[in-house]
Amino acid sequence: MQRDPATLPAAFVALRAEDEAFWQDQERNIQGALGQPCCTLSGIASGLLRIRGHFAIVIHGEDECAGCFRHLGPQMVNLFCTGLTEQEFVTGRTAEPLRRCLDAVCEEVQPEGIFVLGACPVEVIGDTFEDVVAEVGRRHPSIPMVALHTNGLKVGTQTAMLDWMFEQLASLPPRPTLAPSWRRAVGHAALGALDHALGARTDAPTLPPAPATRPTIALLGLPPWHPRGRMLPEYVGALDRAGVEVLANFPHNASFDDWRALRTTDATFVADRSLYPKLGRVLSRDARPFVEVPLPVGLRATDTFYAAIGEAIGRVEALEAACAPAREGAAAAIEGFRARFAGVKLAYGLRMNNNYNADELAYQGTGDLAALEELGFDITLLVQGPPDKREKFGQLFERRGLHFKFDMFAEPWILGEVLVDGGFEIACLADFARSEAQRARIPMFPVRRLEACYDGVVDNTILLTRLLAPAGS
Amino acid sequence: MRSAHDRRGLEDFAVRGLHLGKMTGVMVGTHALSDAFLLMHSGVGCKYKTAAQGAMHDLAEHPNVREAWTQVSEAHLVQGCSDRIGPFARAWWERRESAFMVVVSAYFIELTGDDIADAVREVEATLPDCEMAYLDTKAPNGGFFDGYAGVMREAMRRMDWSRAPTLPRHATVIGHFFHRYEPDTKADVAQLRGLIKAAGLDTGPILFSGGGYRDAKAAPASRYVLELPYTRPHDAELRRMVEQGRTVVPVDLPIGVGGTARFVRTVAAASGANMDAVEAWIHQQSEAVRANVVRLTEPLRSYAVAVFADTPLAAALVAMLVELGVDVPLVGLRDQHGSLGGAGAFWDALGRSGIHTLPGTIVLDDPSLRRSRDALLPLIADRPLGVIGSSHELDMLRNLPRTSAFLHDVPLICTGFPADDYHAVASLPSFGFLGAATWAHRLLDAFGAPRLGMSAHRL
Fold first, then answer.
1. What is the pTM of this model?
2. What value of ipTM does the predicted structure carry?
C-alpha cells in the first residue's frame, strides 16, 4: 500500500518531480510491443540447452554470465564457460582461454557442432572472438563452429532472438535423418524385444520393413505436446494416416539431428511466419516452402491449420478423413462447455512473460484468444504496462484485428485488486501471478496452458470445467 | 610460470552443479529480508541471474516482487549510466517503501570505470527511511555464496556492533541460509529457535530468516552470536565486527540426531547452561525420534546414496546418512571456487561429528555436471543407489541418454538451491530432531514408493 504523497518529505517529492524527464525519455522506448525485451545470450543459451544431441555450447565471458539462464536441459553436460577474469578483460587477453576451451572440447568431447556465445563484457571490449573460433575451426574441420555475438546490450525482442537462433541451427550442414515413423517402429520393436527377453511377452517381435519414401514436413512454433495417455501428437497420427511424415515440432521436441535435417524436408509449416524472416531466407535458399498456419488451439484454428497443410501438400481430403473422429469430439466438447459457461468473465494477461517460447510469442501472445472466445468467455485483456500508454496499445490491437475490451495495469502485484474490481471469474496469466489470482479468489491457468488440435480442445474443456466448477461444487 | 587459471582443461571450463554467480546469491540474500529491495544496475540479461533462478524454487513468494533493473543498454554505457540509479531507486522506494535497498552491478558496467559506489551513496541520501548497499560482481569472486554472504555483511555493517549487548541471555544467529518462504525453510527457522531455547538461551534476530531488515537491526543487543557456516566467504570480517563484548559460537548445521544434539550441546556449553538439564532434553528428544527412525529405516541399510550439496549441507547430510547406516559412495561439494570451504571444510565438519574416514567414498570438490555424471554412472550400474542433489544434478540425471539409465531405477531426492523439484506444503524442517525424522521419511519415500521402473527396489 503506497503512502499518501502528502506525507512524503518535500525534498524527495522535488527529486521525483525532477526525475520525470528521465521517465518520459524511458517511456519513449516503449513502442507498444506486446513482448518483453530480451538478452540474446540468455535466450539462445536457454534454447540450445533444451535440444537433445551431441553438440556443445561455450559461453565466452565471465562466470556470472553463465548464470543468465536456467541450468536445466539435456545439454547442461555439454555447456562450458571461458570464465574470464577482470585481468583478462582489462588486458584484452581473452583469446587464449577461448582457444584452450575450444581445443579441449573438440579433443575430449568431439561434438558434432559448437556454438560460441559472447557475453556483454566481451562486447564492451570489442573482442573479435569469431577469429579465434575460425582459427580453432580450421584445426578441427569436421566440427562446425558458430560464433555468435550474443549479449544484452542491444535490447532486442524475444522473437528476433529466436529467429536468429533458428537461422543458425538451420544453416548447419544439412544431414538427412531416418523417417520418423521408421524410427518409432524400430523403437517399438526394440522395446518388444526387451519384453520378450524378460519374459513379459511370448512372441518375438520382428522389425517392420523400412517404409517407402513419403513426403516429410516440419512444423515450427506449435505448442508443446503433452502425452496425456496418448502415444503420439494428434497431428503426427493424422498426417501419418494421410501418408505424410512429420520430422518434428520445432523447437519444442526437435533434436540436433532434426535441426540438421530441417532443410531436407518438403515444407515447413510455421505459426506466425512474420516472426522468422531470417529462417525463412535460409529455407528459401533450398526452395523449401515456408507456409503460415495458425496456432492450432481451438476448433476453428485447428480446422484452418489442417486445411493449410492439406492444401500445400495436396492431401486435403485424406487429412479431413484422418481427423474426422477427433473433430467431432472437439465440436461436442465446445457445445457442452458453452451450454454451462458461456458469458463467464475471463481476464487474459499480456506482456507479462519472458520465457522464449515460440508458441507464446506467436501473434504477440494472442494465439489462444480465438479458442477462448469460441468457448463463450467474455474476455478482457489485461496489459502490463504504463496506464498512460493505453491509447498506443489500443491502436496496436486494432491493427491486429482484436476487438476485445482491455485494461492496463502497471505492476503485477496490483493484479489481485484489478481482478476483483473487474469482477472476473477466471484468469489466464503468467505463472508467477498465481498468488494474485489467489488473492482475488478466482481460478487461474497459466498463459499458453491450452493444448493444441482437436484432442486438445477436449482436454481444454475438461481443464476449464474443473477450474470453474470443481468437483462437488 | 603459467597460473592454474591459464592451465585450465576441459573440467575447469565445464559448468558446475552450482554455476550461479554472485548476483544470484545477492538476489537470494536480498529476498531473505522481507522489507529489502534488489536494484540491479544491469542490462536485460542480468534479470535472469536473479528472479528467474529462484522463480520455481520459491513458490510461496516470487522473488520478482521486490526487484527491478536500471535497463542499461549500449547507448547508456557510452553516456555513462550511474545517473540511472537515482530515478529507479526513488520510484521503487515510493512503491515498496523498502527499508534496505541493495544495488548490484553487472560487470560490463563496472568495466567502464563509472564510480557506482559513489552514485549509490548519493542516491541513498535522497531516500527517506531507507539504507542502501552496493555490491559489485567483478571476477573472480566466490560466486553464489559470496553474494549471499555479501548481503549479510552489508546488512551487518549497518548495525551498531560497537554498542555493548543489552540482552545477556539472547543469541542472534548469523550465517543461516534462508532461500525461500515455503513452510520447510520457515520450519527450519522455528527449529533453530527451539534448539537455542533448549540450550538455555532466547533467540534474537536470525540473519537471515525471512524477517525484516528493521527487525534484524536489533541483532547487536544479543550477548551471543551463533555463527552458521554460510558466513564463510566473509567470516573473518563478520567475526571482527561482532566479537567485541560478545561470544561468537561457531556451529554446524543441526541436521540428523547427532548433528542436532551437537548443536544444542555446543550452544549450551558456550552459554554456561545447566548441562544436565540439556543432556536430559537431548536424550528425551533423540530417543523419541530414534524409536521411529531406526525401526522404519532399517531396510535403507542395504542402499547407497550419493550426495551433491554445498559443503556444510553435504557434511551434515553425510553424517546423518552414516547415522542411518546408509552407505555414501560419492559426495559432490557444490560451492563454487570452494567458497564454503570445499573438501577441507567438509572433512573438518565430519570430524566434528566423529567421522574421520569414509572408506571407499569419493569426494569431488566443485565438480562439473559432466564429472558428476561420469562419477555416478558406474555407481548406478553397480548397485541400488539414490541421489540427493539440487534440481541441477537431478535434471542432469533425468536427461541421461536412455541407453545409460533406462534399466536403472534411481530414487532422486531434491534439496539445496535450486530445489524446483521439492516443495513443502507442511512445516517439514530439515533441521532439528523433527528434521531427522523428515529426512528419514523423505529417504523412505524415495526408495520405497511404488514405481514402474524395471529395477524398482522393494524395501
1. 0.93
2. 0.94
